[in-house]
Specification:
Layout (H helix, E strand, L loop, with lengths): L24 E4 L6 E3 L5 E3 L8 E6 L2 E6 L6 E7 L5 E7 L10 E6 L5 E6 L4 E6 H6 L8 E3 L5 E7 L4 E9 L5 E9 L5 E3 L15 E6 L4 E6 L4 E6 L4 E7 L9 E10 L2 E10 L1 E2 L7 E2 L4 E6 L4 E6 L6 E5 L4 E5 L7 E5 L11
Parallel strand pairs: 1-19, 2-25
Antiparallel strand pairs: 3-28, 4-5, 5-6, 6-7, 8-9, 9-10, 10-11, 12-13, 13-14, 14-15, 16-17, 17-18, 18-19, 20-21, 21-24, 22-23, 24-25, 26-27, 27-28
Length: 351
């Protein structure tokens, strides 16, 4: 997925983007005739491990789940991505040598052989060779790289052997932050802001977004959390298109829009709320709302479909080899589930 923790589409804007002067803007509004109810197609996956909120990553034939609030001794759990058969767990949680104090996202190298895992407690990235994890149930990482202290990556993907492109957090104070696209050389520690910046951000909340990267399609996608906006950029950081939703000009910190985004074949699939994400029910504790649907776009930013999952999910990933989406449900007895994308008609139904 790409995942949760990171915050996320009518007037024509004149938008600069590095060396590009693109001002292309698309618009979308959800519609009932483009909505598909798939709640009966979601298949539950039973596991013997109790999970908390986390993030998925596909590694070849493996499904990796990083548990951000683990109640288990390890924080990284590995399954066969086709059968969901449990294989092993790694990344011992703790404050001892080679243990993880505050696990964050993982980055898979270009060869698919090494997983780098953020440890925000120790302010390092740990190296987890996939072969070592699979062959040694007691594996502890010995190689680490110090994090940048000024601002640091929280999600991303490798675009070369040493450079990660993705989401960075910029601390503004002890209790506030903003987010930016950034490019980091993992080995030198050099990190810099990168690419197109949404020009009408009014405050730090407007900078919160989620991200996915596609080397195959030579692009990356921003989906904003508090702005009804998705942006698609090339790998040089130039804007390809802005995609504005019907609530683009509305700002309300109690309303969230995009929560996560991934790519399936020629489609962009984003989890979406589009409504208030906190419900107050009398004297009870506030109820936090997670997404229960996806919006599907083509690679040009055209809105195609809404997929109604029915149940709220916190994170997801696309398993393209098996033509499905894997989800994490916080409120269901079986935390994992999936549904097939193979038979869904994504055509726009427009002539």
């Amino acid at each position: 997925m790409k995942h949760f923790i990171l915050p996320m589409l009518f007037v024509i804007l004149s938008l600069g983007c590095n060396n590009s002067n693109s001002d292309r803007t698309m618009y979308f509004r959800e519609s009932a005739d483009k909505t598909i109810d798939i709640r009966d197609q979601v298949v539950s996956v039973k596991t013997d491990i109790l999970f908390r909120f986390g993030d998925f990553l596909i590694v070849d034939t493996l499904l990796v789940y990083t548990d951000f609030a683990s109640v288990n001794p390890e924080v990284i759990h590995i399954f066969n991505k086709r059968s969901f058969e449990y294989i092993t767990s790694t990344g011992t949680s703790g404050r001892g040598p080679r243990e993880i104090t505050g696990v964050g996202c993982g980055y898979l190298d270009l060869d698919g052989k090494v997983l780098w895992v953020d440890d925000h407690g120790n302010q390092v990235k740990w190296k987890f060779p996939i072969d070592s994890i699979l062959s040694n149930s007691n594996f502890l990482p010995s190689t680490k790289i110090e994090m940048n202290n000024e601002f640091f990556m929280t999600d991303g993907g490798f675009i070369s052997d040493s450079v990660v492109l993705g989401v960075a957090v910029v601390p503004l104070s002890n209790s506030s932050m903003e987010m930016t696209m950034a490019k980091e050389n993992l080995y030198s520690g050099e990190i810099e802001k990168f690419g197109y910046v949404y020009p009408e951000a009014k405050d730090r909340y407007d900078t919160y977004f989620n991200f996915c990267l596609s080397l195959r399609d030579s692009l990356y996608v921003h989906c904003y959390t508090y702005v009804d906006l998705m942006t698609i950029c090339d790998l040089n950081g130039n804007l390809i298109v802005n995609v504005e939703g019907s609530s683009f000009n509305k700002r309300d910190e109690a309303v969230k829009y995009f929560i996560g985004v991934d790519i399936y074949k020629n489609y962009i699939i984003a989890s979406y709320i589009g409504d208030r994400y906190v419900i107050l029910d009398g004297g009870n504790e506030p109820q936090i709302i997670s997404p229960s649907k996806f919006l599907v776009f083509d690679m040009d930013g055209n809105y195609l479909k809404t997929l109604k999952v029915g149940s709220q999910f916190s994170s997801f990933c696309v398993d393209e080899d098996n033509d499905r989406i894997v989800l994490f449900f916080e409120e269901k007895e079986d935390s994992f589930g999936y549904f097939s994308l193979k038979d869904i008609d994504f055509s726009s139904d427009e002539t």
